[in-house]
Structures are given as structure tokens and as C-alpha cells.
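One record is given unchanged without comment:
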Amino acid sequence: MSPRVQHAEIEKKRKGLHDVPVVCAIVDLSDAALFAADTIRPLPFCQCLRHDPRLVVGNTEDQAETMKTESGEEFLIGRGAPFFDLQRQIGLVRGDALRSGRRALVFMFVTAVIPVMLAVVTGGLAPGLSILTQPGFLARFVIFVAVCFLMEGSLEKRLRDFLERVDGSGLLDDTQRGKAASAVARALRVRNLAIADAICLLLSIIFSIVLLKVHLANGDIDWLTNDVDGKRTLSAAGWWITTVSNTIFWFLVFRWLWRTAVWIILLRWIAQLDMRLVATHPDRLGGLGFVATYPNAFAPLIFAFSCVLAAAIFRDLNNQTMDVATYGTVMTAWLALVLAVFMLPLLSFARPLQRLKQAALREADILSTRRERTSERKIFNRNIFGPADAVGEDGEVADPSAYRKAAVSLGTIPFSRHAVIPLAAAALTSLVVVGATQLPVKDLLKTAKGLLLL
């Protein structure tokens, strides 16, 4: 048999044992050894491994691929729909490269730099500096816009890693993996809905108009207006901010809320799969312990939202229209909202975990009863209470005590307090910083202590 034919035969064996990592590794090693031995110019073993990365035992690329659709498409949360396609058409996105930094700079230029330039050109340096000193302006059109684009790569990677973990951790058999791929395909269709982007754009325009009228009525955007014949009218920079910058800001807000909702829907579909859970898994969650960490992927987005909220709080504290009690209430409500949005979806996994726990305890109790009654008969030659057991039940019975103990300690909700610390920090950091600039340290610490008890 020639080296090439022999190599092909072993490759078939390796693919047939795809779902058995240990055996797959052994076949890989055998393949590497034979390939090195039969080659006309044999290579050292380590050099052979370098030439064919599939032969490296630690390489799990063939064992745990990303959860994909039948067409090979992955779930990438930041892509798809007309807004992303438009960026591709005008050259902001090329191929699979997001070019997040460049896109962030372009949109920050549109939302923040152009209005400052207009203010300087039409009114001099003072109006431009006035705009740059507004916390709301910086939070919305600089921080929020930048984070929305810069976070896309890391967010997609972490969600892709999550789906890889679901696909490659042994939780799904081939049938369920097919259903998982179908769920991803459905989520992609929902993500790509053109009507979703249209609704986000419509809502952004409505919000911009309504909030403009509210701000003009309250007189709290004087830095965007000029005094003309005793009347306050929007300056050129003011018109740009209200018609362009605000519309882009609100569009990004609603777009990311929609994308987050699509991910939560996909998470629910995954939770409905028939997973191969085990009560004695070391994570005490049947093998779903990693699910509790997914909210951390959205920490940058939460930080961006919290900066916008912090800017509004800073304005109210500076104007003395918000007291310490209200400040604490706002912080508590914001943290509770963030945790609810990202932690409640974990309840989708509660049902299979509860079913696992009930089934494990039931089987452990049955086996415990059988074992103890067998032991009782060996001591007294009979069972002290109840009808006699069937003939042939005196054989050796395994001790289910450890299994039952694991089943009792099995959690039914994949929640970890430590796993949400980054999410809570992202939600509160900017609010605490703002409070520290306006409130006594004693009051701030009292508020923080109350949040720690939440």
C-alpha cells in the first residue's frame, strides 16, 4: 500500500471516530507516525506535525466546530440587514473584516466632529468649546458611538465561543446538532430582517423630534441655540445634532436592543434542545455551567448605555434637581434592569435542569431502596416492612449515595454571582464616578453598600 493510500485510509478511520476525542487523538498519532515513516524523504516527528496541523493532538478544530447553518454561515451578531450592507457598499466593511476602528472614527466624525466644526465656523471658538464640555454630547456621540462599533469584534468572538462550547462539549447528539443549526439559521433570518432596521430608523427619527421639542420647551439646550430677536433658535450645529447626530445615536440604540433580543431568542431555542445533561457534572449544573458567563460578553454595550445615563444624572445633580435618595434609586433601578435583561434568559435552561434533577433523584431513590432492602434481607433473612421483593433481587447493587448527593446539590438555574461582576461593574462604574464628583463620599458609600446587598 502506498503512503498516500495508507494516509487516506487512516484519515477515514479518524473521521469515523470524530466524536471520540481520545480515540481520535490516537489515530492522529498513528497517522503521523506512518506518514513520517513511509515518506520518501522522511521528516522528524515534530516537523511532520508542523506540516499538517490536523495531526496535532491538542488541535480540536475537527472535533468542535462553530455551530453553523447548512450553508456554513455562523451567527455573527453585528452583521447583516441593510445598515451593515450599506457600510459594505460604501467601503467601510471589506470581506469578513469588520474594520471597527475605521467605522467608529467615521461615525464619530459625522456625529461629533462636524457639529463642533459648524459651531466654530459660525460662532467662533467659544461655541465649539461649549459643545465639547457637555457631558451628554460626549457620552452620546463620542463614547456610545465608538463603543457600538469597537465592541463588535470581541462580542462576536465571545458569542461564537459560546456556541462552540454548546456544539463541542458533548451536550448534543447529531440530531440535536442539526436542530441547533436550524435554530441558528432562523436567528440569522430574524437578524437580517430589513423591516427591523426600518423600524429602528423610524423610531430614531420620532425620538429625535419629540426630544427636541421637549428640550426646547425646557430650555436646557441653550448651548445649541442662538438668540435671534429675543427668540431662541437652533444654531447650525444644533440643527446638525438634532437631525443627524441624534438620529444616528437613537438608531444605534434601537439596533443593538434588537440584536440583543435576537440573541436572547436564539438562547431560548438552544435551551429547548434535548441536551445530554448529567447530574454528576463537576460544574453542578449538569454541564451547563458555562452558560452563566454569557452576559459578560455584553459588558461593553452596558458600559456605553451607562455613560449616557451618567451624563443625564450629572446634569441633574449639577442643577440640583436630583437628591441623594433619587440618585440611589436610579442606580438601583438601572442595575436591576440590566441584570433582569441578561439574567432572566438563563431561566430558559431551568426547565431541563429541573427535569434532570427530578429524574436523577427518582432513580437514585429507587436504587437506594433496592440496595438497602437487599442488605436488610442479608441481615434478617427477610424484609422487616412491606411485601417481599421479587425473586432474584438479591444481587450486588451499586451504592448510589454519591450520585444522590450530587443530584441534591445540582443547581436548576445557571446563575453565578461571580460571573455577573463584570456586567454589574460596567453598569455602575460611570454612575459612581459621576456621583463622586457631586455627592459627599459618605452618601455615595451608603448607596454603594445598598447596591452590594441587591
